[in-house]
Structure formats: C-alpha cells, structure tokens
C-alpha cells in the first residue's frame, strides 16, 4: 500500500469515527442501533409513517439498558412533550412483549415510564434503525 493510500484510509477512518457516519443524519448511535427523538407532535399513524420515511421504525425496546439509554437521550432534549410514541417493549421479568394494538397505543410518557395512550393524541416519537 502506498503512503497516499494509507493516508486516505486513515482519514476515511477518522472521518467515519468523528462524524458518526454509522447512523443517518439526526440519529444517535448506541450498541449498533440508531435513535432519533422528535418532539414534533404527531398522532400514532403519522409518527409511524414519519419513521418509515426515514428508513426506520418506531422504537422497539429490547432491554433495560436500551430503555435507560433512551431515557437519557430524551432527558437531553430541550423541549418537553407529554410523551413519545414507541413501537414495543420487551418485559424481561414477565417474559413477553408489550406492543401497540388497536385498543392500546404504547408510549414513553413525560415521566419516562411506559404507558398507553389514545392513538390520536399528538405526541413526540422515537425512531430506531440499525447502524450501518
């Protein structure tokens, strides 16, 4: 490998590390996933569609560690909303998924606890995608 090739590889590596190119613009990386908290108030359907438009989906919480990270991420947000639409949450103590369905729409509420809300209430939302 020539010095120029080595320099190019080194610069590309540093560029990737410092700018966080693993995630789309506006998303933050944590353990091979990318997250974006949006305080724009949307009903469940619009929040779902906006995440899809960004090649992502509403947050699916797979662990307590992930939930704690999301709580820290939301806590850094300058704006406060009544809650955030999410897709689903796995409760390890009960060994089952909690998901939004036509009667119950899962949110992370303003106290950063999981609860349900009516699908038409305008709330923020959290999108998730895989880091690349």
Task: Write a brief structural summary.
With 132 residues, the chain is α+β, with helices and mostly antiparallel strands. It has helices at residues 3-19, 44-53, 64-75; strands at residues 28-30, 33-42, 57-58, 60-61, 83-85, 88-91, 96-99, 105-109, 114-117, 123-130.
Task: Walk me through this protein's architecture.
The chain is α+β, with helices and mostly antiparallel strands and 132 residues long. It contains 3 helices and 10 strands. The protein is globular and about 35 Å long. Residues 1-18 have low confidence and may be disordered. The strands form 2 sheets. Strands 1, 2, 3, 5, 8, 9 and 10 form a 7-stranded mixed beta sheet that branches. The chain has a 3-stranded mixed beta sheet with strand order 4-6-7. β1 and β2 form a beta hairpin. The chain has one domain (3-130): Mannose-Binding Protein A, subunit A (Mannose-Binding Protein A, Chain A), CATH 3.10.100.10.
Blueprint of the fold:
Layout: H1 3-19, E1 28-30, E2 33-42, H2 44-53, E3 57-58, E4 60-61, H3 64-75, E5 83-85, E6 88-91, E7 96-99, E8 105-109, E9 114-117, E10 123-130
Parallel strand pairs: 4-6, 5-10
Antiparallel strand pairs: 1-2, 2-10, 3-10, 5-8, 6-7, 8-9
H/I helix tally: 3
Q: Average pLDDT, to the nearest integer? A: 81
Q: How would you describe the oligomerization state of the chains in this entry?
A: single chain
Question: What is the helix fraction of residues, given as a range?
Answer: 25-40%
Global shape = globular
């Amino acid at each position: 490998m020539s010095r120029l090739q080595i320099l190019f590889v080194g610069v590309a590596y540093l560029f990737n590390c410092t700018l966080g190119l693993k995630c789309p613009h506006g998303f933050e990386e944590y353990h091979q996933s990318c997250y974006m908290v949006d305080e724009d108030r949307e009903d469940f359907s619009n929040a779902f569609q906006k995440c899809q438009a960004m090649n992502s989906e509403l947050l699916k919480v797979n662990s307590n560690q992930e939930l704690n990270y999301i709580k820290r991420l939301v806590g850094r947000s300058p704006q406060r909303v009544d809650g955030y639409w999410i897709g689903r949450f796995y409760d390890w103590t009960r060994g089952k998924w909690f998901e939004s369905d036509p009667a119950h729409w899962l949110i992370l509420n303003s106290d950063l606890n999981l609860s349900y809300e009516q699908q038409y209430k305008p709330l923020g939302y959290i999108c998730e995608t895989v880091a690349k």
